[in-house]
Amino acid sequence: LYGMSNILPNVTSLELVYTAGDQTIPDYALYDQSSNTGAAWLKTLAMITAGSQLTGIGDYAFSHCTNLGTLSLPSAVSVIGDYAFSSCWRLDGTLVIPSSVTEIGHKAFTNCTGLDTLSLPAAGSLTIGEEAFYGCSGLDGTLTIPSSVTSIAGHAFYNCYGLDALSLPAAGSLTIGIYAFEACTGLDGTL
Q1: Residue 160, CB half-sphere, CA atoms under 13 Å: how many?
Q2: What is the C-alpha separation between 86 and 4, in angstroms, rounded?
Q3: Which helix (H) or strand (E) holds 4?
Q4: What is the distance between the terminal CA atoms of the chain, rounded to a whole angstrom?
Q5: 3-state secondary structure of 6
Q6: Which of 54, 65, 75, 152 is the most buried (most CB within 10 A)?
Q7: pLDDT (tens digit, 9 = 90+) per residue, 51-94?
């Protein structure tokens, strides 16, 4: 898919439709390892399932798609791979993680500075990988960690300085890794 910009230079939206069986978006789908670039032409991404289940988003699948502004994750996705959406700077608004997601990979959303709200699922069981939201400086307000989150790895929210409050679950088992909220200088008050 990476080379589509040469074939269709005016395309800015991509609608992925899955029609049969369980599917995973492959590793490096729109990312070029040799040049460390993504598909800059992509602005809107919709993943639609029709009679099938999109169950995973591979490592680096949409990394460095620097103009991607809109993302809608389907309800059956269970794994968001390492670096899947890293450095998608223009990804903005609220990122809703469906309750089907069990794992957000290492650096999955690192440097997505345009995100302003993160909505984590109240149901299910979710682990947040190392540096998953590192440098998401646009996140602001209160970050609510529901009891569905069982683990937050080291540096997961490092340098998310727009956050001003953190709400942790009153019950359940939550492991928080080293420096998970380091450099979140806007955090103030009592946990």
Answers
A1: 30
A2: 20
A3: helix 4-7
A4: 45
A5: helix
A6: 65
A7: 557 889 999 988 988 888 888 888 889 999 999 999 999 889 99
